[in-house]
Amino acid sequence: MISAARLREIAFWSADLSEQEFEHARRGIVEKAYGKGAYICHRGDRFDSWAGVTEGLVKLSTVSRNGKAVTLAGLRAGGWFGEGTVLKNEVRQYDLVALRDTRMALMDRSTFLWLFENSVGFNRFLVKQFNERLGQFIALVEYDRMLDAPARLARNIASLFNPALYPGLGMHLQVSQEEIGLLSGISRQMANKSLQILESKGLLRVEHNGITVLELERLARYGG
Question: What CATH topology corresponds to 147-221?
Answer without folding.
Answer: Arc Repressor Mutant, subunit A (1.10.10)
